[in-house]
Automatic annotation (TrEMBL):
Pfam families: 60KD_IMP, YidC_periplas. Belongs to the OXA1/ALB3/YidC family. Type 1 subfamily. It is a multi-pass membrane protein. It comes from Terriglobus roseus (strain DSM 18391 / NRRL B-41598 / KBS 63). One of its GO terms (molecular function) is membrane insertase activity. This is Membrane protein insertase YidC. One of its GO terms (cellular component) is plasma membrane. Keywords: Cell membrane, Chaperone, Membrane, Protein transport, Transmembrane, Transmembrane helix, Transport. PANTHER family: CYTOCHROME C OXIDASE ASSEMBLY PROTEIN COX18, MITOCHONDRIAL, OXA1.
Length: 597
């Protein structure tokens, strides 16, 4: 077996420049990502119950209308025929639930105060409420109405509607809210069934003329319990069958997106609120971008009191004719669920909302395979990741053996390459004669069937898979709260850092046992020690699912390398390395860390 720092590859060794560049690029990407995540991943205070009572404000008709009205003017508890007004005298709630959710509406604004997903829990172990209490109190609750007149928007959010039913109800159910005051008339109707989808209809009229009022999800999600969670917020749209995601930094508050529009959604890493208009050809949307101040939550659970500005993005959808009719999906970004929800006027579904980034096509295939393993082989997601890793490494095994053979060819011609380099050693690097040296080396390699990139093939195949897993595993809602031994959430970091430690040890063994013919000794030493430490750093605060995938892969690589070292090619490579080491005894390059069989 070749050494980690091979004394026979000293000055005469060929610098595997392409391999080094590839490693530097990988390290740079990992370093930047981990630094950004570690800097942003600061816990916040757990959501608190929002105050339902708010001060009412006048609802003003849009500019150019003939009148406005005051939401407090009517005190009757129900419709008053004499006053021709419909308004409630006090705030009250109506709760609708099925097996998937429990939604609580307030008649103040006919808005949602709580949207609990029953199959999920918060990071604190309690019910998962997707309503962001702090942000909603400041910028509007889900399914509130957004108009282009700020005064009217505020008034609609504080008006006391009259609900068709109250109390605790189960789906299927229809809930209608009515409000009529002066020359303004508002109706909001919601239909509930056994799925995550709610059908919504709303109409706002001033002087019997429809006003463009959009249903909105204005301000983030209730699962955004850490600063980093807000940074995963996006606005997603589908226009003319083409889906597009917009990160929170690029979202412009108040920007109108014109028709055609198959859907408009706001989401984070795991959940989404998507509006699917019945008439995409006349649907419009408005993007919303605000910020809120929250307090840091220290590691010991105490609030530091230091303000932190975090972004909250939202979206509103309506129709150019003034009457909004849309389906609203509020739930997990589960591939199985999303692909079952069609968009109007198209064969597309909501599946594009599950976006795994640049390596998305590879990541989606890996997730499909991971999901298949979970459904048919291993019912535990942790074991499914282990099984996926085993399969991936078995597929890569032939390429690793080819890499060994390529390294052997390189070792065989290494003395001749050393001789060529010695012949041109007297010339400076900038001397044109150096081109002749490179030409001779390339001719020698060609005559002996040596491919300089042959040894990099396994790495070239492994890196895209690793980056795909890097983008996929932290975003799969199925892995949220998934258990595996001491791990209680495969999308979160290992709480005891066991996997990162195993990562360091297994990465060192991988470098220790793997031959690197032709690599410069200093580069080889750097890779032998820097890569394990850096791999541990990457996985220290990242998804434990990724650390599990990486650790199992490294252990399999060590086992495969040990087996290959016992083959004819492996034995010959060790003999060549030992022979060259004997020739250079006494050289400063001979002081090396010896590789093992």
């Amino acid at each position: 077996m070749a050494e980690i720092k091979n004394p026979n590859q000293g000055k005469g060794g060929t610098s595997n420049t392409s391999f080094l560049v590839m490693m530097v690029v990988m390290l740079g990407v990992f370093a930047g990502l981990q630094f950004y995540r570690s800097k942003q991943k600061q816990p916040l205070q757990p959501p608190t119950a929002q105050t339902q009572s708010q001060q009412s404000a006048p609802i003003s008709a849009p500019t150019g209308s003939k009148a406005s009205f005051n939401a407090n003017a009517v005190k009757a508890p129900a419709a008053s025929a004499a006053a021709d007004a419909i308004a409630a005298s006090a705030e009250q709630t109506t709760t609708i639930e099925n097996e998937l959710y429990k939604i609580t509406f307030s008649n103040r604004g006919a808005e949602v105060r709580s949207w609990i997903l029953k199959k999920f829990k918060s990071r604190y172990g309690g019910p998962l409420d997707l309503v962001n209490a702090a942000a909603s109190k400041e910028y509007g609750f889900p399914l509130s109405l957004y108009t282009y007149d700020a005064g009217m928007t505020r008034g609609l959010r504080t008006a006391l509607f009259v609900p068709s039913v109250t109390g605790n109800l189960t789906s299927p159910q229809t809930l209608t809210f009515r409000y009529h005051q002066g020359n303004v008339d508002v109706t909001k109707t919601f239909h509930f069934d056994s799925t995550y989808v709610v059908k919504a209809e709303s109409t706002v009229k001033v002087d019997d003329a429809p006003v463009r009022a959009l249903l909105s999800w204005p301000a983030g999600f209730g699962d955004q319990e850490q600063v980093g969670d807000y940074n995963s917020s996006r606005i997603n749209t589908m226009r003319n069958g083409k889906s597009e995601g917009l990160e929170f930094k690029k979202v412009t508050g108040g920007e109108t997106l014109n028709a055609p529009l198959q859907y408009a959604a706001t989401d984070d890493a795991y959940f989404v609120a998507a509006f699917l208009p019945d008439n995409p050809g006349s649907a419009t949307a408005v993007t919303l971008h605000n910020t809120i101040d929250v307090n840091k939550l220290m590691k010991d659970g105490k609030v530091s009191g230091k303000p932190v500005d975090v972004p909250v993005v939202g979206v509103a959808l309506g129709d150019t004719d003034g009457t909004t009719s849309t389906r609203v999906y509020v739930g997990p970004k589960s591939a199985e669920v999303l692909k079952a929800i069609p968009v109007s006027g198209s064969s597309d579904t909501l599946e594009p909302l599950l976006d795994f980034g640049f390596w998305g096509p590879i990541a989606k295939f890996l997730f499909w395979f991971l999901n298949w393993i979970h459904d048919h082989i291993a019912s535990n997601w942790g074991w499914a990741i282990v099984a996926l890793t085993v399969v991936v490494n078995l597929v890569l095994l032939p390429f690793r053996f080819q890499s060994l053979k390529s390294g052997l060819k390189m070792q065989r011609i290494q003395p001749q390459m050393d001789a060529i380099k010695a012949k041109y050693a007297k010339y400076k690097v900038t001397d044109p004669k150096r081109a002749d040296m490179n030409a001779e080396i390339m001719a020698l390699q060609k005559d002996n069937g040596v491919n300089m990139l042959g040894g990099c093939v396994p790495t070239l195949l492994t890196f895209p898979l690793l980056f795909a897993m890097l983008g996929m595993l932290p975003k799969v809602v199925e892995l949220r709260e998934a258990h595996w031994f001491w791990l209680h959430d495969l999308t979160a970091a290992d709480p005891y850092h066991i996997l990162p430690i195993v990562m360091v040890l297994s990465q060192f063994l991988t470098q220790f046992y793997m031959p690197a013919p032709g690599m410069d000794p200093q580069q080889q030493k750097m890779m032998a020690f820097m890569m394990p430490v850096f791999s541990g750093f990457i996985t220290w605060n990242y998804s434990s699912g990724l650390a599990l995938y990486w650790c199992v892969g490294n252990l399999m690589m060590v086992a495969a390398q040990l087996a290959m070292n016992q083959t004819k090619e492996g034995r010959e490579m060790r003999e060549l390395a030992a022979k060259r080491a004997r020739r250079k005894v006494g050289s400063p390059q001979a002081k090396t860390i010896q590789g093992k069989r």
